[in-house]
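Inputs:
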Amino acid sequence: MPLDGNAIGGLLHEVFGTEMTDAVATCGTCGASGRVAETVVYLRVPGTVVRCRSCSAMLMVISQIRGTSCVDLRGLAALDPRGDG
Amino acid sequence: MSSPVSRGFRRRHRPSGGQEGRVPPGQYVTEGFPVLSAGPTPHTPLPEWTFSIRQAGNTLRSWTWPEFQALPAENITVDIHCVTRWSKLDTGWRGVPVEALLTQVEQKAPYVMAFCDGGYTTNLPAKDVTGGQAWVAFDYNSQPLPAEHGGPARLLVPHLYFWKSAKWVRGLELMDHDEPGFWETYGYHMYGDPWREQRYAGD
Amino acid sequence: MAGTAIRGRLSSRPRPWQVATVTSVIRETGSVVTIELEAPGWPGHRAGQHLDIRLTAEDGYTAERSYSLASANGEPVAITVERLDDGEVSPYLTEELRAGDELELRGPIGNWFVWNTPDGGPLMLVAGGSGIVPLRAILRHRQRSGSDVPVRLLYSSRTLDDVIYRAELERYRNDGAQITYTLTRTRPPGWSGYSGRVDAAMLAQTAWPAGQHPLAYVCGPTRFVETVADKLVGLGYPSERVRTERFGGVLWCRWMGTRSAACCTRCSERR
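Outputs:
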């Protein structure tokens, strides 16, 4: 079963340089907004896939290979970090 | 800055006792059957299910579930190897050889892209899905393949890493050139031979 | 993402990996330990946050996992780990690791599944199995900060022996917190508490009424969290006042007799 965006908090912090679990993610497919912490996360499959909780569309694909992270934000219409991290 | 070694920590054990020759480098043997999916389990009703061979946007040939079930199928027992490092030995399947499907179309191509419910894709050389190396499998352990493991039918290509054995497969697209499928696009190896440990591009 | 804007200031305040030293390993239950760590320069943390652990084998192989912080700010950094029989990291942490060992950690992480005292309450905490860990951090922080926010805990566990932090939870009960257990697998003789999985009826009886504007934190295996969160919303909790954290579910494999993270096609029981 999948987890949620809390599970990739460390990874996203590494990629974005700031805390992202409370960032607001807007789905490019259905327009729903929600916190990254509430997204549906499939870990180690073999990479990481983040999906919209409303419509299941892919929001992000993250692949960590040989110490390099590849982050594809293909499915997001917006990603809005809040607060001061 | 190098990481300190964690005293006493080791990766999951390599096999011992006669299994060495069967387990590729860096793998461990599991008794369970891990479920790894990049998305929710699709549930295509069988009356709507088809398997198609396509090329350049055209469907060359398509089988409904009853037509597919009428094709000659075989029982096979194979070892499977996942890039996440687990291997499972002596898994039993029943499926239609991919060759039996590809020979039903005139067109030939050097590469195929498997496409699936949910949008997953993976690329393979045509010669790796023929010659008794690949099946479209619909039974596992003498039972209908469970949805969480790719049922009603999945691709089964045991000589390559298991991400190539695409779950919920709905067909093959014939390609003139090798193109990366889903995980290949994100850095996983285009071919994926577990015996040469081809996990990532450049391996 | 075409036309996407990433708004907001992306400040560069990385949380790099740092070496930490194990100061103690405390057995909580047969399959669960709490590991206390000395992490130089630890910036402090909030209740509900977690850290990532990285282990490195002699051949350079590394494995990373995330664990909720079990302690409150001001206490030593601590995590509580449950052993999965087919796990790669948890058997090492729960059975091999000892005081003096080093490992790498990164954190604290998380800014949504957190409770700060100004967030108030009344607090509704719902735990499934090892989901109790971050909720215990919330309970500790509430106590340490002198907060008098009313709190209720509903904790689902397989058996009474699997209840983590039981003595501590009883102390909170003596201090006025409402602590309710439900045991899903076996009960001790004379058990008068709840049995079976958390359902709508049990939540209706144990959860703060929506009219009191409670703040809920639900943690445990994914299926547990989704069932409970749905039911709380069904009881009138606004969805933004139901914070959730999903752990990988532990499956009890009837066929293999093990606690496993993997699905076995022969077993059907899930926690």
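Remarks. The two ends of chain A are 29 Å apart (CA to CA). Helices of chain A lie at 9-16.
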